[in-house]
Design a protein that fits this description.
mainly alpha, two-stranded antiparallel sheet, disordered C terminus
C-alpha cells in the first residue's frame, strides 16, 4: 500500500495494527512517532532522506499541483493544515527566479511554520502541527537508528540494493528501477538550485540540513570502511600461496590455502 499519507491519521494507525497476514508493504510520509511502537514491534523499516532543499522544491511544486488539479495526494486534515501554503504558492511561476525570491522575502509567518524542517518534524512529531526545535535534532537521529535501512541523496544505488536484499527481491532490473525512481526531476532540480541562493528558504531548513549531512557522513564512512575491508580481503586471497594438493593417486591439483 503506497502513499498512505493520503489517508487520515486514524486509518494509518489501523493499517499498522493489521495482523494475520503473511506480509505487508506500506510506504508514504507519516508522522513516525504516532505509530513508532507498532513499527518497531512488527515491521522492518527503511527511510530515504532527500536533500532538504530539493525536498522543499518538490513540496512547493506539489502545493501548486494540488491547487490546480485538486489531486487526492493528501488527506483532508493535511489539506486543511497546509491550505495557507497551498494558497500562497498557487500563483507562483516556478520558471521565474525573481518571483521565487520575492515569495520567500515576503513569506508570512504561518506559511513559514508549515515549511520549517519537515524531515525532522516527521521523525519526532505526533502530528504535523507540532514544530521542531534544536532539542529535537538528537531525538530525530536516535529514531533513525531504529530503521533497518537508511539512505539519502547521493547514495541511491546503495539504498536500492539494500532494499532489494531486504525483500529478497533479486528480479533482474528491480535494483535499477528503484535507483531510477529516486532520481531527481529536472524541473524540480532547477527550482532547488534557485532555492540554494535564497537565504530565507535555507533558514527554514536548518535542522533538516544538519540531519541530512549527519546521515550522509555516516553512510560515506560506513561504505568507505566496507569497501576497505572488501579490498583487504581480496588482497589476502590474492596473496595466498598456491601449493600442489596431492590426492591418493599421486596426481596434483592446485588449491589455495
Amino acid at each position: 500500500l503506497g502513499m498512505i499519507e493520503r489517508f487520515c491519521q486514524e486509518t494509518i494507525a489501523q493499517v499498522f495494527l493489521l495482523r494475520n497476514c503473511n506480509s505487508s508493504f506500506l510506504s508514504g510520509r507519516i508522522d513516525y512517532k504516532s505509530v513508532q511502537t507498532n513499527i518497531e514491534a512488527n515491521f522492518r523499516s527503511m527511510i530515504f532522506i532527500r536533500d532538504p532543499v530539493y525536498e522543499l522544491a518538490e513540496r512547493l511544486r506539489m502545493f501548486k499541483a494540488i491547487f490546480r488539479t485538486r489531486s487526492p495526494i493528501m488527506n483532508d486534515r493535511d489539506l486543511l493544515f497546509y491550505k495557507p501554503a497551498i494558497d500562497y504558492f498557487s500563483e507562483l511561476d516556478f520558471r521565474d527566479k525573481r518571483m521565487l525570491k520575492a515569495a520567500f522575502k515576503n513569506l508570512p509567518d504561518n506559511v513559514a511554520n508549515l515549511l520549517h524542517s519537515p524531515i525532522v518534524r516527521q521523525l519526532v512529531s505526533n502530528n504535523p502541527v507540532q514544530l521542531a526545535g534544536d532539542q529535537h535534532l538528537s531525538q530525530a537521529l536516535d529514531n533513525l537508528a531504529n530503521f533497518e535501512i537508511v539512505g539519502c541523496s547521493g547514495f541511491e544505488e546503495f539504498y536500492a540494493k539494500a532494499l532489494c536484499d531486504l525483500m529478497a527481491n533479486a528480479e533482474p532490473g528491480n535494483e535499477a528501477f528503484l535507483t531510477r525512481s529516486l532520481a531527481r526531476n529536472e524541473q524540480t532540480q532547477q527550482v532547488a538550485e534557485w532555492l540554494f541562493e535564497i537565504k530565507p528558504a535555507l533558514k527554514l531548513l536548518d535542522l533538516d540540513t544538519i540531519l541530512f549531512h549527519e546521515v550522509k557522513y555516516a553512510l560515506k564512512s560506513t561504505l568507505t570502511e566496507h569497501n576497505k575491508k572488501t579490498i583487504e580481503a581480496s588482497e589476502l586471497v590474492s596473496a595466498a600461496p598456491i601449493v600442489p594438493d596431492v590426492d591418493e593417486t599421486g596426481s596434483g591439483r592446485d588449491t589455495i590455502e
